[in-house]
Design goal:
elongated, 7 helices, alpha+beta
Length: about 280
Amino acid sequence: MVARRRKRAAREAGEQLPSPPGYSAIPIKFSEKQQASHYLYVRAHRVREGTQSTWPQQRTLFVLNVPPYCTKESLSRLLSHCGSVQSVELQEKPDLAERRKEPASKFFHPKPIPGFQVAYVVFQKPSGLSAALALKGPFLVSTESHPEKTGVLKWISEYADSVLDPEALRAEVDQFMEAYDKKIAEEEAKAKEEEGVPDEEGWVKVTRRGRRSVLPRTEAASLRVLEREKRKRARKELINFYAWQHRETKMEHLAQLRKKFEEDKQRIELMRAQRKFRPY
């Protein structure tokens, strides 16, 4: 009897989900066919005293060991049983600040993070965080109603998404450039208004404006720039550093002297041939 009780206690202890200290383990499976479970390690997001963090500490769940096939949508769906999910952010490593939200685009997507990731899940209410910490699982990532594409199907989908519509892409780029130009114009107008105006402490911000004329894009100017760069490189090069360089320099100098000597001889012969006797 004692041996059976010990075996039962050991079995019950072995059934406890493994997790690092301070974390709770949530088992997940990719599909029903998968027998082994993958574990997400979760805890309430908290920082040291005096450290600033933009994540709301009473409503943010920090998740470790997020597999590559688990997307923001699937993670939000898995945790939606605990309460309304406000946002899900996947990152390569933990960070105390939220990333700046970029406008959603159909053509320009951020570079996917390779390998396992960490996640910050923000709930609408603190009760959602408490419920998430008490989850037992296992939960399915890919279901019939919400299938996740992997392998060849995922590659086919990524290839199909990579084929862009030129007209739609041009429209989105034009819209982005209009918003960018408007933003730059507003910043320039604001800087012009604040120029020479003292702040609350009486300091005046001095900015340097470029007064040098822009280099003209002409062929002569380009040639001058190239010639200047060539002279700089020539000054940096080591001249007559090796013996073969010294030998070649001497041979080139002798060849130039011989060439000049022959030219001088031809010029002297030409001058002699042009001599004429002029008595008067």
